[in-house]
Write a structure and sequence with these properties.
Number of helices: 10
CATH topology of the largest domain: Aminopeptidase
Order of helices and strands: HHEEHEEEHEHEEHEHEHHEEEEEHEE
Strand content: 25-35%
Structural class: alpha+beta
Oligomer: single chain
Helix content: 25-40%
Distance between the termini: 68 Å
Strand order of the largest sheet: 3-4-6-5-7-10-8-9
Bound molecules: zinc ion
Radius of gyration: 24 Å
Largest sheet: 8 strands, mixed
Number of strands: 17
């Protein structure tokens, strides 16, 4: 009897495991080089697309070209056709990021991001930017097209950043905002130049630095390449380049890595008007897209991954409350990296203690307190301070109540 139960358990768990692998195998088989090339031909101006009742050609996606906005509209429409909610994030005077969110089933507030920049070089009205970075942009769309038909435990964000070529401006803005909101981002997969392989050796690189779980993420690239028999000759580049959008996430303390073609076979046409669709190595591009999508699926996938990935903070930290100033309620967040005696105290402008929000031993975790009417109804408008004392960590922040 006991033996039978044990056998059933073993069979059951191995079924779950193989199911996941089967599903991911099924997913990557759906990557279509025809879809990739067709979308890329529109994004690079090789083919026309309908726009505002007529037809247009996206001949450039450079910041100073009107094509940058055409591209944005085209990409937005593609996400909408897939059926995902799309969000536009404006920054500076002319920067426009867009992203689509696919809600996770079990952990909807934790995110896996796949991203690419859609702007391009060189300056002027003709810049197809096929490899850099039409290739990554269209691969993100392909991920959305295929994965939107499946359910994942974590939420997936398909993000397309603007103004990477102007100094990672779009991703910097996004990552800073995400950090301020204390978004729980498990991994960021950045695709930048994934369609060039002049010698057909299938060599590519995953760029990584030792930030949070980034090294684990790079390992998942290698594991997926092997497990799903994708056929990329993958090298780890460590410490990886900071010249693309993943670096914005590293700078804000998030797990990230970049997939890119081999630096030993660098694109001859980089940042030139000749970086057009005819230079794309289709077979290589298809494999790179499959690799990216398999890694994304692994991360967004099963409950088991939740346990394997460290989700506790790596440092003590008191965030700046949001919103601030506020009139009724604001959120105060803090991170504890170790179990410790924790005190979170609110003071008035004269230094008198008004509330003890936390006073006791707490476990390592991310915490959030709604400083709402329960507290604010007893307070008048003005400046207040709150401090976090946790172990040797001490920080004070200012908040402004305007009634
Ligand atoms: Zn690029």
């Amino acid at each position: 009897m006991k033996r039978a139960i044990l056998l059933i358990i073993i069979l059951f768990s191995s079924t779950i495991f193989s199911q996941k692998k089967e599903v991911i195998n099924e997913i990557i088989k759906k990557v279509s080089i025809d879809t990739l090339m067709n979308n890329l031909s529109i994004l690079t101006g090789d083919k026309e697309t309908s726009f505002g009742g007529g037809n247009i050609r996206i001949t450039s996606r450079h910041r100073n070209s009107l094509g940058n906005t055409y591209a944005l509209q085209y990409l937005k429409r593609k996400f909408e056709k897939i059926g995902l909610p799309v969000y536009q994030q404006d920054f500076l005077n002319d920067g426009q990021n867009i992203y689509a969110i696919q809600k996770g089933i079990k952990k909807p507030n934790q995110y896996v991001i796949i991203c690419a920049h859609y702007d391009c070089m060189p300056f002027g009205d003709f810049a197809p930017g096929a490899d850099d970075n039409g290739s990554g942009t269209i691969a993100v769309l392909e991920a959305a097209r295929i994965l939107s038909k499946y359910q994942f435990n974590y939420s997936i964000i398909y993000a397309l950043f603007d103004l990477e070529e102007q100094g990672l401006l779009g991703s910097s803005y996004y990552a800073q905002q995400a950090s301020m909101r204390k978004d729980s981002i498990i991994a960021v997969i950045n695709l930048d130049m994934i369609g060039w392989d002049s010698n057909n050796d299938y060599a590519a690189e995953v760029h990584v630095q030792d930030v949070v779980n980034s090294i684990h993420l790079a390992q998942v690239f290698h594991d997926s390449n092997k497990n799903y028999e994708i056929g990329i000759k993958l090298f780890t580049n460590y410490p990886g380049s900071t010249a693309s959008d993943h670096a914005s996430f590293w700078r804000n303390g998030f797990t990230a890595a970049m997939l890119i073609e081999s630096f030993k076979d660098f694109n001859f046409y980089y940042h030139q008007t000749s970086d057009d669709i005819s230079k794309i190595n289709k077979d290589f591009y298809e494999k790179m897209t499959k690799l990216a999508i398999s890694v994304l699926s692994e991360y967004a996938g099963t409950e088991k991954d939740v346990e394997e990935i460290k989700t506790t903070p790596t440092a003590f930290y008191l965030s700046f409350n949001y919103p601030n100033p506020f009139n009724n309620s604001t959120k105060i967040r803090y991170n504890l990296s170790q179990e410790t005696y924790t005190r979170l105290i609110v003071y008035d402008a004269l230094g008198n203690e008004v509330f003890k929000l936390v006073d006791g031993i707490q476990k390592p975790n991310y915490y959030e307190i709604n400083f709402d009417e329960r507290f604010t109804k007893k307070l008048s408008s003005g400046v207040y301070f709150y401090s976090l004392q946790a172990g040797n960590y001490f920080a004070v922040r200012k908040m402004i109540l305007t009634k």
